[in-house]
Amino acid sequence: MQIIRDVKSLPAALAGLSRDFGTIALVPTMGALHAGHMALVKEAKRHADAVVVSIFVNPTQFGPNEDLANYPRQEAADIALLEAEGVALAWIPDVASIYPDGFDTMIRVGALADRWDGAARPGHFDGVATVVTKLINRIGPKVALFGEKDWQQLAVIRRTVADLDMAVTIIGVPTERAEDGLALSSRNAYLSDAERAAAPVLHHAIQQAARAISDGAGVADALETARAAILSGGFKSIDYVALVDADSLEPLTRFAAPARMIAAARIGTTRLIDNIAVG
Ligand code: AMP
User: Fold this and answer.
1) Catalytic site residue 124?
2) Residues 122 and 203 in one domain
């Protein structure tokens, strides 16, 4: 596996990959890799001849009081995982390579990015859309893969790629979970043992609400029951628990396919998100 840290040597390395293998898939990550990331890599191999994984903790998608400085970093372990999975190239740029002096352009996605996580984390999706566009522009992949775990992020990226006429196909990959249902996330490393034991209630609560709604229960009642279960299960506060249109992310007061149940809540100092299909 080639490891590239700068921008200058990328074009020659990518030309070599195209020549030796063929098409390229890109899997953008922020590192601290786990089985969720590796599911993206495995799926990437089904869509292209060579897989490029980027590892970049993107400062523009973190708010001023968020966890940028503490975000888990474990590069050696990440490289070993990618190597074992047959990734062709790991691109691990530093911040100055992506945002050199004078950088002054951000992509602003509209209504889709303003609600839910966008409301709780102002500017977050502008940072995501901007960095993903830059990574795709540098790598020039045929396909790029993103996890359904970050459902709104996936929707925002699909919107950006469509609106900016980018010649890449976006592929969503289902969420990898621990055996107890907790969605795998790099941020799970922040959880204490007690918090980790309590955290699956987020998944179980939205699962139960989704089932109730599919069975005909009222949406408001089902969401209220889920919120109560999340809070009594050990979460400190809830940013949102909502039934939304799976594409537009507009809230639904009645079930209508395709629908998604989305949730974000804080346990201790850690903010966790989850989502599932409904119906
Ligand atoms: P991150 O490193 O957290 O920015 O995630 C990089 C990519 O991996 C994003 O497209 C995420 O949606 C995806 N991802 C993270 N966790 C999971 C998971 N548990 N299952 C599937 N994909 C995931």
Assistant:
1) no
2) no
**What is the per-residue pLDDT across 49-103, written as a single tens digit (0 to 9) for each?**
999 999 999 999 999 999 999 999 999 999 999 999 999 999 999 999 999 999 9
Is 16 inside any structural domain? yes
Domain range for 32 is 2-173
What pLDDT is recorded for position 167?
97
Q: Which of 149, 158, 190 to mutate to test the pocket of ligand 1 (most atoms within 8 A of CB)?
A: 149
Backbone angles phi and psi of 28, in degrees to 5: -80, 135
Q: Which of 34, 37, 47, 204 is catalytic?
A: 37
Tell me which residue has its CA closest to atom 12 in ligand 1.
Answer: 147
- pTM of the predicted protein model: 0.98
C-alpha 268/C-alpha 253 separation (Å) is: 30
Residues 6+ apart with CB under 8 A from 86: 45, 51
- Is 83 in the same domain as 139? yes
Dist. CA 140 → ligand 1 center (Å): 21
